[in-house]
Amino acid sequence: MSFRRLLLLLLWCILPCVSHGMAAHADNATSELRVAVVTSSHEAPYQETLQALRAALSAAEPGANVEVLAGDSVAAGDLANRRLIVTVGTQAAQRVAELGPARPVLHTLLPASAFERLPRPQAGAPSSAIFLDQPAERQIALLRLALPDWPRVALISGSASDGIASRLRDAATARHLLVRATSVEADDDLYPALQQVLAEPAVLVAVPDPRIFNSYTVQNVLLTAYRNRSPVLGFSAAYVRAGALLGLYSTPAQIGAQAGGVAARVLRGERLPAPAAPAQFEVGINLNVARSLGIAMKPAHELTAELQRRERAQP
């Protein structure tokens, strides 16, 4: 057999193996860039989070493959062979935590109290979160910046939010504010609690506890505060539109963009960061309420920029 024929025969034998190895390598590389996003709902806030996550991840890691799954029907097999799992909303977080995937999980768009109640992940399967809640220090810093002449803070919490209220109380005390706080266990206790903590005009800080501050109680809370000449700091844009003087919140798009950045870093081999509050945020102001209460306010964008500047300056 000539040398040339022998060489061709060897190549004919080797090439399928090489081709198979390259295909396997490509499949492994693709699986390393697979991200499963499990959503609680198709409603607007969840879609905004998803779109911002996709955009941020695509910009940082163009080869990433994002598959969106419904939280009410996701199964354990759907989460296999993923480099990262991202949940959007409390219901999706609960479902994924119950399934216990052996993959890193990043929870988004949920309160810190909901994250703390999730089943613990399997050993060796890290999980983290980007909370809806704003840090207590950020909220109190906003009050000192926006309402420097108001020395009192009012807090109402329940069993699920006592920890949040405690952190707010500590942050307010550190800023030399007077705090009047109480805890309630039932809806019937809310009105007496409001009268108690607002016996003297104070800034009522609404905490993200759906048993206390929800769509059924919001009007009662805001009207009672208004009658007691007390402004309210809310935790959403909706609260500001409903009648809270101030709002401090992160938009779904801001949280989604932050999640996309975290996902890109995980795909590059970094570990999940520790659970944290959202990095970006906005301040909202209800100017009609400000005029009715006779309170002069700086523009919302100025308050936002100043808070961001102060946080960047912290060591």
From TrEMBL:
It comes from the Bacteria. Pfam families: ABC_sub_bind (PF04392). This is ABC transporter substrate-binding protein. The keyword Signal applies. InterPro entries: ABC_transpt-TYRBP-like. Keywords: Signal. It comes from Thauera sinica. Residues 1-23 form the signal peptide.
